[in-house]
Design brief:
Layout: H1 8-22, H2 34-38, E1 45-49, H3 55-64, E2 69-74, H4 77-87, E3 93-97, E4 110-116, H5 125-135, E5 136-149, H6 155-158, H7 161-165, H8 174-183, E6 187-194, E7 198-200, E8 203-213
Parallel strand pairs: 1-2, 1-4, 2-3, 4-5
Antiparallel strand pairs: 5-8, 6-8, 7-8
Helix pairs in contact: 5-8
Length: 220
């Protein structure tokens, strides 16, 4: 269930304000180790959705080497400015500003897609995972760490821009989240890490790391 459409702009503003302020902080913004799980290899092309300050983009660029590439995607200008500074001197790394549900990259440009605590901010998770499918080459893989809710959230939370900005107002139950992934055509979907539930703003959520693949030419 999406929030009241009239709240789309307030949610976007609240999220931009929070992450703009965090662009110069040392606070960890992750909820897992998606890049380590994805384990990009030499020569692969990696896309990081919701790259923030660019730490995983830098690490991916180092892992894939000069024959590969690492591209960070984010909607926050201030986060991307911080990432640009961090990535200076890495010729195989870049960032771009884009909506995660409509990424300004060509189809089949990635061997690996990763994301860390970002897709929960998207009102339409299914649209983001359709983009993951589109961005991956046949046989390509993804690893995503994200926040999901224990139960459907009450309307008071779903329609609270501050809750969305704080990484829990946009969370959905794990079965619904996984269903969005498989509905996008991604396969071999597996939750490889799941935390114990914890309280955020008076509701229970937990973090998961999920992996999967875009089927290859030989897949049914």
């Amino acid at each position: 269930m999406s929030p009241d459409p009239k709240l789309a702009e307030p949610i976007a503003r609240a999220t931009a304000a929070r992450y703009g302020a965090l662009s110069t902080s040392k606070e960890s913004l992750s909820c897992g180790r998606a890049l380590d799980v994805a384990a990009p290899r030499d020569g692969e092309d990696v896309v990081d959705l919701g790259c923030g300050r660019g730490g995983d983009v830098a690490r991916a660029a180092e892992r894939v080497g000069p024959r590969g590439s690492a591209t960070g995607v984010d909607g926050s200008e201030r986060m991307l400015a911080a990432a640009t500074d961090l990535l200076a001197g890495l010729p195989n790394a870049r960032v771009l500003r884009s909506d995660l549900a409509a990424v300004a990259l060509p189809p089949g440009c990635a061997d690996v897609v990763v994301s860390n605590c970002a897709i929960n901010h998207a009102p339409d998770k299914a649209a983001v995972y359709r983009e993951v499918h589109r961005l991956l080459r046949p046989g390509g893989r993804f690893a995503v760490s994200d926040v999901v809710s224990e139960q459907p959230l009450p309307e008071s939370v779903r329609n609270d821009p501050a809750a969305w900005a704080a990484c829990y107002g946009g969370s959905i139950p794990e079965p619904e989240y996984l269903a969005a992934i498989t509905a996008a055509g991604l396969r071999e979907v597996e939750v490889v890490r799941r935390t114990e539930p914890y309280d955020k703003g008076g509701v229970l959520v937990h973090s998961i790391t999920v992996t999967g693949r875009r089927p290859g030419p030989e897949s049914p």
